[in-house]
Write the structure tokens for this entry.
Amino acid sequence: MNVFPQEEAGRRFTFANWSDGGAQNHTLACDGPRTLSAIFTVDDLVGLFSSPIRAVILVDGTAHFAPDAFWCREGSAHVLEAPSPQVDNASRSQYRFTGWADGAPPVRTIMCARPTNFTAFFEAISPPPPELPPAPGPGYPILVLTVIALAVFLPVLLVWWLDWRRRPGGPPVTQVAPLTPSVQRCPACGSPAGPDWTFCMQCGAPLR
């Protein structure tokens, strides 16, 4: 004879033993009328839910992220706890526990007697924290050092260059002669004449 695990909605039946004490697989001799019973243990499915966030619910100290579920042996006791406050990973907001759907306290003991669900409710207590600026890349320290070096050494170089130019042995300064406009003169009397004159105003000689 052989018996396999069986399930129905929200319940799981696992073979424990035969009423005659035999193993799960054993041979039965047909030597007379007899009645045998298969004894099963029953596990109930317990659902864990939370609203409006995916909260952490502790079952006997083990964290479950709602929605989740676990099997519990029928007749066993378990401790459920809804830690508070919690941070929602999606919005980065803080939420505090406000109560279970059936009004039980945050830490409660349940007895497994049938498949059931437990829902923990939360409410927001703070706005999301501001986003931090992105971390500097690997070249950030080099850029900072370069800027600091330029800020320190450029003024020093400028002062040294100005001082060097003031010294007697500094670089030669090229003197540029001022430009003077060419003056037209009369070929006859030598008097200055304007560039657009045709005749000399002094002697009347032609200039062109």
Observations:
- The radius of gyration is 51 Å.
- The mean pLDDT is 81.
- The chain is about 15% helix and 35% strand.
